[in-house]
Amino acid sequence: MSRIAVVPGSFDPVTLGHLDVIERAAGLFDELHVLVVHNPGKTALLPIAQRVSLIQESVATAGFAGNIVVTSWSVGLLVDYCTDVGASVLVKGIRSQIDVAYETPMAIVNRNLAGVETIFLLPDPAHAHVSSSLVRQVASLGGDVSPYVPPAVAKLLENNRV
Questions:
Q1: Catalytic residue among 24, 53, 88, 95
Q2: What pLDDT score was predicted for residue 161?
């Protein structure tokens, strides 16, 4: 029986912290789905298809080991996707107590709805302060985001000055 997990997120844009969690989670499971989801509470900078492409390129460039599937999901509950692909675990990166407080109720509901457990992974301390919203803000003000994002993302943000 394969151990399949899902790392969901808006990844708008993907950061080095995201990649750290993806790489470590890939080592824990037989198959890892990196799932770009629409967050109705956020205004997206990049279209979902572009976020998927940037993650695929970043994972390939980094040479992560493991069976990693990068895709998107926009219809239904996250646990519906998990059921569809046979995943029993969600992996969430946690940077602070604020993230724990936000993620815990969702983890309980996901377990109650579909028996899907949630595992929290702490980021490498070098990335614990980085969020996609911080990256977007720095980029929008003309700052250098290259220490926080994969090269493909840095190039895109620099070229588009979004």
A1: 95
A2: 66
Per-residue pLDDT reduced to its tens digit, 136-159: 999 999 999 999 999 999 999 998
d(CA 157, CA 118): 32
The whole-angstrom separation of Cα 14 and Cα 61 is 14
Residue 95 a catalytic site member = yes
Based on the residue annotation, tell me whether 129 is a catalytic residue of this protein. Answer: no
Question: 78: left (phi > 0), else alpha (psi -120 to 50), else beta?
Answer: alpha
DSSP code for 126: G
Span 55-104, pLDDT tens digits: 999 999 999 988 999 999 988 999 999 999 999 999 999 999 999 999 99
Whether 58 is a known active-site residue: answer no
Structure tokens at 38: 């629409």
Strands 67-73 and 117-121: unpaired
> Active-site residue among 18, 51, 92, 136?
18
Whole-angstrom Cα distance, residue 5 to residue 17?
18
Rounded to two decimals, the pTM is: 0.94
Task: Look up residue 94 and give its two tokens.
Answer: 């946690």
